[in-house]
Write a structure and sequence with these properties.
The chain has 181 residues and is an alpha+beta fold. It has one domain: Peptide Deformylase, CATH 3.90.45.10. Helix content is 24%, strand content 29%. The protein is built from 4 helices and 7 strands, in the order αβββββββααα. The chain has helices at residues 27-41, 132-145, 156-161, 163-170; strands spanning 45-47, 57-61, 76-87, 91-98, 101-111, 113-119, 125-131. The strands form 2 sheets. A 5-stranded antiparallel beta sheet has the order 1-2-3-6-7, with helices on both faces.
Length: 181
């Protein structure tokens, strides 16, 4: 199943998501559907709130960057109940976009490496460090679980400059190549 992507202006994107456990119905199928949705939308990360579900689940697929960074050729992961417990002091700027904010791309400063605990799709525990592109995408998707979007990291001036575009997105006045709601 391909889910429509929830866009800016929907209250689901501003809610803090809740933990789930192995009794959550059809989690394997949901994860597969999220990867199909992500692939169809040509993104690299998708959080459950972006498909209307306020649960602590997101997926990351960095394989589109494998030509540039060969070690990412198999980087496809599911993150359940993730908790980032350490962020590097070193940061970098990188242009980000978001499937829930179509047509807007802005430079966002994030930590270059993180450490986190999470469960995979089989509810196996992991404690890992991530750096580079994966760390950036993970932080972006993790923000969705906390009710934040990437534009929240912009200066007041930058937010003011894109305010009319954001308003248009909230009014569904935009075009993109994937289904939205």
């Amino acid at each position: 199943m391909i889910y429509p992507i929830v866009t800016f202006g929907s209250s689901v994107l501003r809610k803090i998501s809740v933990d789930i456990d192995s009794s959550y119905p059809a989690i394997q199928e949901l994860c597969q559907d999220m990867f199909h949705t992500l692939s169809q939308a040509e993104g690299v990360g998708l959080a459950a709130p972006q498909i209307g579900k306020n649960i602590r689940l997101f997926i990351v697929d960095c394989t589109p960057w494998a030509e540039e960074v060969p070690e990412l050729k198999d980087f496809r992961k599911v993150f359940i109940n993730a908790s980032i417990y350490e962020r590097s002091e070193e940061t970098s700027l990188f242009e980000e976009g978001c499937l829930s904010v179509p047509g807007i791309h802005e430079n966002v400063r994030r930590s270059v490496s993180i450490k986190m605990r999470y469960l995979d799709e089989n509810f196996q525990e992991h404690d890992e460090a991530f750096s580079g592109y994966p760390a950036r995408v993970i932080q972006h998707e993790y923000d969705h679980l906390e009710g934040k979007i990437f534009t929240d990291h912009l200066s007041a001036l930058r937010r003011s400059l894109i305010k009319s575009k954001m308003l248009n997105i909230s009014k569904k006045k935009f075009s993109c190549t994937y289904k939205t709601k």
